[in-house]
Every structure is written in structure tokens, then in C-alpha cells.
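WARN no homologs supplied; continuing
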Amino acid sequence: MFGLFLIIWILLNGRLTAEVLIIGLVLCVPLGFFFCRFMEYSLKTELALLRMIPWAVRYVIVLLREIVKANFSVLRLILSVRYEPEPVIFTFRTGIEKSRDRVLLANSITLTPGTITVGLTKDGQFMIHALDREISEGTEDSVFVHMILERQKAEQESASGGNQ
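OK structure emitted
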């Protein structure tokens, strides 16, 4: 972190002189210490975030694909003259452990047309409102749940492998 701060300092100054370097060192050393001590920064967490980028890109692509598919389902439902929608509220649990991952799933469900997350409890119970019973089918076993559980499992394996 210290090195990043120093590089930014030099770039913002636009020149590299002894004076700029000394002032940069005086400012960046305490700032780097502050981030490590009080902001719980570590190189390990930074590397973990970098390793998560490919998964996040894949997740966004899947999310966009599911949004488009759901748009067509909702459009078909709305434009159908013979079909009467059957709104439903249902609950389910997943094996997702971390609250940030539960929130990610809840937001993904809400972003997908035809469904909205009404509630999420601390113990991992999701309450979902769906525009139609057909749309609600498979939500608890969706591709989002599988991707999050897959990443969760990979994180656990890498954590247990690093502790041995």
C-alpha cells in the first residue's frame, strides 16, 4: 500500500525530485501504516480480491443473461391474453454462509424481472415475491446460488490449504 501511495504522490506532482521524494516518504509511510493498522489492509486480502475478478466478470455476464431471459418471460406473461398471472410469495434457504453473498443473491433476484426479494433473515431465509408461480420455480436452485456456492467452496478450500 505504501508503494501505491508513493507512486500516486509522484504522479500527482508530475516530476521526480529529491524534495518530492522526501515529502512523499514522510506522507506515505504514516498513511501506509494507518491503512495496515486501522483499515485492516493486507496484501493477502488484496490478492484475494484480485483472484475474484474473473469470477465476478463471469457472474455479471450470467446475471445479464438471466435478466434478458426473465424480461422475455415477463413480456410473454404481460402480453398473453389468455393467461392470468398467479403472484406468489415464497421462502427458501440456501447453504450460503456469508452475509455479503446472501445480499448478492438477494440483489440478483431483485434485479431479475418478475421477482423481488422481500426479506432476508440473518439465518439465511429468503422471502421472494414472484409475478407468477412459473417464474418462481427454480429460484432456490438458480444459477446464482450455484455460482455463489461454488465460489464459497473454492474460498474454503484455499483457506484450508493455506493453513496447513
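The CA atoms of residues 55 and 151 lie 8 Å apart.
OK
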